[in-house]
What we know:
Layout lengths: L8 E5 L4 E5 L11 H23 L3 H19 L6 H4 L11 H20 L7 H11 L38 H13 L7 H15 L6 H15 L11 H6 L1 H14 L2 H38 L5 H13 L2 E2 L1 H8 L3 H13 L4 E2 L9 E2 L1 H8 L2
Antiparallel strand pairs: 1-2, 3-5, 4-5
Amino acid sequence: MNLKDFKAGTLKQEYQYKSFLPNKINQTFTWDDPQINVLLEDATRALGELNAYTMIVPNVDIFIQMHITKEANTSSKIEGTKTEMDEVLVSKDQIDPEKRDDWQEVRNYVDAMNYSIKELDNIPLSNRLIKKVHEILLNSVRGETKLPGEFRKSQNWIGGASIASAYFIPPHYNNVSELMSDLEMFIHNEEIFVPHLIKIAIVHYQFETIHPFLDGNGRIGRLMIPLYLVSNGLLKKPSLYLSDFIEKNKTSYYEALTRVRTTDDIIHWIKFFLEAVISTAKSGVKTFETILSIKQDMDEKIIKFGKKAHNASKLIEFLYQKPIVTITEVANKLNITKATASSLIKDFQTNDILNEITGFQRNKSYAFTRYLQAYSKS
C-alpha cells in the first residue's frame, strides 16, 4: 500500500459511544514523497553515528544505564510523575514520602528496560515480552490494580473525565488481541519490505492507537522503540530514547498521532517520527562526546591520587553508574571503612569531582555534577 492511500480505521458504534477500530497493518508500505527519503537517509546516518559511539566508549554499559535512567524519568514525566533526575538516583528512603510513588514508577521503568533488553537474547520482541514488561512496570505502583501483564478487558479512553467527554476512545477490548497479533506479525514479517525506521514508526502509531493496556501504554509504546532497534541490529546497545524529544514537543506529538486517526495522514506522523530520531541521535552523540571528555579528564586526575588511586578509580567507576552517593554507599561499594570513604570523598571534593548537595550536617549526599549535567543537557 502507498502511504498516501493509508486508511487508519473507522469509528465503531458501541453502547452510548463510538470507539476507533484501526485497520490492520501487516502489509508492505511504499511512498512517493521524496522528503521521506531524505529524512530516512538522515535518520539512518544519525543512528549509525550514535551506534558507533556505543562501540568506542569504554565500558559503555555503565553509561547506558544512565541513558536508561534518564529515559525512565522523562518517559514517566510525560505521564505526570514529578520526580527529577537527582531524586531518581538516590535510594527510596531518601525521597520525601509523598514522592515515593513517582520514584517507584521510574525505578520500575528502569527494571522493565533492563529486563527486556536481557530477554531479547531469549525471546523476540513480542506480545509475550510486552506483557511481561508491562507487569514489571506496574508492580507495586498506582496502576497495580489495572491488570499488570494483561491486555485490557474493559474499555479505556484518552482525555476527558469520562468516556462521554473523551478525546480519543481506542478499540473495544474484544478487538485488542486480534489487533495486537497483527501488530506482532507486522514486526516479524520478513516477506514485506519496509525499512526498519518506517516500520517502527508505524508500529508505534498502531500500538498507541490500540492502547492495549488499561495503564502504561505511553511508556510501553516508547520503550518498544529501542527494543525494536536493538532486536533488528540497528543499535548494538539501547542508546536511543525519544521521550525527551516527545516531552519537548508533546503537543506536536499528540497532534501527529491524532492527525492519522482523523485524516489518514500517516505521512505527517512518519516525518515527525524520523525528525525525532534525527534530533535524538544527534543529541546522544553529543552526550557520548561529553562523556569521553569527562572520562579522559577523570583518568588524568585519578593518576595523581598516588596510593589512593586504586580506590579512587573504583569510586569513579561507581559514580558513572550512580552519580549521587553517600559515604555509607561508597564504603559498602568499595568495601572500605566509612572513615576511608569520607577521606576519599573529601579528596574528590578538593579535585572538583564531587560536591555536597544537601547542606546537612549528617546524612550528606555528594553529586558528580559535571557528569549529571552531561545528561541534563542532552
